Automatic annotation (TrEMBL):
PANTHER family: DNA REPAIR PROTEIN RECN. This is DNA repair protein RecN. May be involved in recombinational repair of damaged DNA. Residues 1-506 form the RecF/RecN/SMC N-terminal domain. Keywords: ATP-binding, Coiled coil, DNA damage, DNA repair, Nucleotide-binding. It comes from Methylophilales bacterium HTCC2181. The lineage of its organism: Bacteria, Pseudomonadati, Pseudomonadota, Betaproteobacteria, Nitrosomonadales. Residues 173-200 form a coiled coil. GO terms for cellular component: bacterial nucleoid. The keyword DNA damage applies. One of its GO terms (molecular function) is ATP binding. Belongs to the RecN family. GO terms for biological process: DNA recombination; DNA repair; SOS response.
Length: 551
């Protein structure tokens, strides 16, 4: 429910704070007083496009804040949770329009986007302007009204999703059938490539080890000669070998320690070096024996290196790319193999079609059942609105499967006895459309629709007893499921039915025009209804008539 609206520097509004009540509220006032400012300000607060021309003259920004209670609004609460915005049963929406054309939006103090405001507004307020009935001429609107009345929105969404899945699979299958030959050729090439790859037993680490091994084998003669030379320098029997020289050095130092004990540590160091050189000699001997060339092993290594290089050259790739590319080849082979299993793919298409058909048939059943009920209810309301002997019918025409189901939905009407049922747009005039729109809205409303509804001069073109009936219908609508209903009207018969009556007035202050909205007391309401009945000069007779209308 809309609790309050605070408007600052908006069009001809300087500063206005409005508090609203449950039930049916009317807004009246002279032409040009600014009755539609409420709707315009609220619409902009909830995400409608706004221009700088709406900022009050002489000001640098407009600031609009609306407050709602959402305790019983499950859809709004769910949206708040999904968008991680805290709430305590209260919702405050604020929008600021700056003179430079930029705007800021906040939901419960959290900076938000205009698109978020629009999403949230769908669960808060429905606004029906005097021209909104033209949307009823659209098949999409008629379908939405019927699905809402049938409480089939979720099922309609499932049908839409099932249709998307079926069509996507069908397109994939048709593309496959068209390109089957190219898929077969691609699969054969990939399988050959992947077979050659598997024969390499390739890994990047293994490739680096193989290159190192190949390098050693190719240089084995040089390595053997060099290692042998190192061993000769260390271990030959003549006095020029390293080991002999160290032994001579050790003996010489040992004799010197008898003269100075401080040299004993140097002897110990030399003994350690001698042991390390001995260990190095053993290691080099082992290494030398390992260098004995196995010609078979050498051929195997050379063959592996050559095969890998040939593979890389053939497919123009580097070793670093091969691991990732091979995984892509494998995945593509799986996809193509699955696609080329024509029976399996066709089965998936058929299964998706069966799923769609089941859901679409169920939706058709719910729509047709609801269509009968809605046709009766709207016909009754049309008769109340002076369409005597009128008839309304929801027509279903079988059509090709679509995201909207298997039927085309159309609202038909006959406005007098014996008239042929025809589409609304081919029968009704502008004034009649207003009444037809109201009858449809009142009849199709459900407890899952938004809690606040605003009607902006939807009663245009009617008067007398029909106007009174319109007022009673709007009042009944507000009392249905504790809904909050607003109407902007020029008709006293409509305003008299409201639970709360607001008067919009305009005044001139310091060369600027300002608009004001006030909740009327019982006495003030009599005066306003009398003004609406009698025009400029209000007589006692008009006053009495106003009291009579108000009851």
């Amino acid at each position: 429910m809309l609790e309050s609206l605070v408007i600052k520097n908006f069009v001809i509004v300087d500063h206005l704070e409005l508090n609203f009540l449950p039930g049916f509220s009317s807004l009246t006032g002279e032409t040009g007083a600014g009755k539609s400012i409420l709707i315009d300000a609220l619409s902009i607060c909830l995400g409608q496009r706004a221009g700088t021309d709406l900022i009050r003259k002489g000001e640098d920004k407009s600031d609009i804040t609306s407050t709602f209670t959402i305790d019983n609004n499950a859809q709004a609460i769910s949206w708040m949770h999904e968008n991680a915005i805290d709430h305590d049963g209260s919702l405050i929406v604020r929008r600021i329009i700056n003179i430079d054309g930029k705007s800021k939006a906040f939901i419960n103090g959290t900076p938000s986007s205009v698109s978020q405001l629009k999403e949230l507004s769908e669960f808060l307020v429905d606004i029906y302007s005097q021209n909104s009935h033209h949307s009823l001429l659209k098949p999409s609107t008629q379908k939405e009204i019927l699905d809402s009345f049938a409480r089939s929105q979720n099922l309609a969404s499932e049908v839409k999703n099932a249709y998307s899945v079926w069509v996507a699979l069908l397109k994939e299958y048709e593309a496959f059938a068209k390109n089957r030959e190219s898929f077969i050729n691609e699969l054969e090439e990939l399988e050959e490539k992947y077979k050659d790859f598997n024969a390499l037993n390739f890994s990047l680490d293994g490739w680096e080890q193989l290159k190192a091994e190949h390098k050693v084998l190719n240089n084995s003669a040089e390595l053997i000669a060099g290692t042998q030379q190192c061993l000769d320098l260390m271990d030959n029997t003549d006095k020029s070998s390293i080991n002999e020289k160290i032994l001579t050095l050790k003996n010489y130092l040992s004799s010197l320690t008898k003269l100075d004990v401080k040299l004993a540590g140097k002897v110990t160091t030399l003994e350690g070096s001698a042991l390390e050189l001995l260990e190095l000699s053993r290691d080099l001997n082992h290494y030398l024996h390992s260098l004995e060339v196995n010609e078979g092993e050498k051929r195997d290594v050379e063959s592996k290196v050559e095969s890998t290089f040939n593979f890389l050259r053939k497919y123009k790739i580097t070793p670093e790319e091969l691991d990732e590319l091979s995984a892509q080849w494998r995945d593509r082979i799986e996809v193509l193999s699955r696609l080329l299993n024509e029976s399996d793919n066709r089965d998936k298409v058929d299964e998706a079609k069966r799923s769609y058909d089941l859901l679409a048939d169920k939706l058709s059943g719910e729509r047709k059942e609801a269509g009968l009920k809605l046709s009766i209810q709207i016909t009754d309301k049309l008769n109340e609105l002076s369409f005597k002997n009128a008839q309304f019918q929801v027509k279903f025409s079988r059509c090709e499967p679509s995201s909207n189901g298997n039927e085309y939905i159309e609202f038909l009407i006959a406005t007098f006895l014996g008239a042929e049922l025809r589409p609304i747009q081919k029968v009704a005039s502008g004034g009649e459309l207003s009444r037809i729109s109201l009858a449809i809205r009142v009849s199709s409303i459900t407890d899952v629709d938004v809690p606040t509804m605003i009607f902006d001069e939807v009663d245009v073109g009617i008067g007398g007893s029909v106007a009174e009936i319109v007022g009673k219908l709007l009042k009944a609508l507000s009392h249905k499921n504790n809904r909050q209903t607003f109407v902007i009207t020029h008709l006293p018969q409509v305003a008299a039915q409201s639970d709360n009556h607001f008067r919009v007035s305009k005044k001139l202050t310091e060369d600027q025009t300002s608009s004001d909205i006030k909740l009327l007391s019982k006495e003030e309401r009599v005066t306003e209804i009398a003004r609406m009945l009698g025009g400029v000069e209000i007589t006692q007779t008009t006053i009495e008539h106003a009291k009579e209308i108000l009851g």
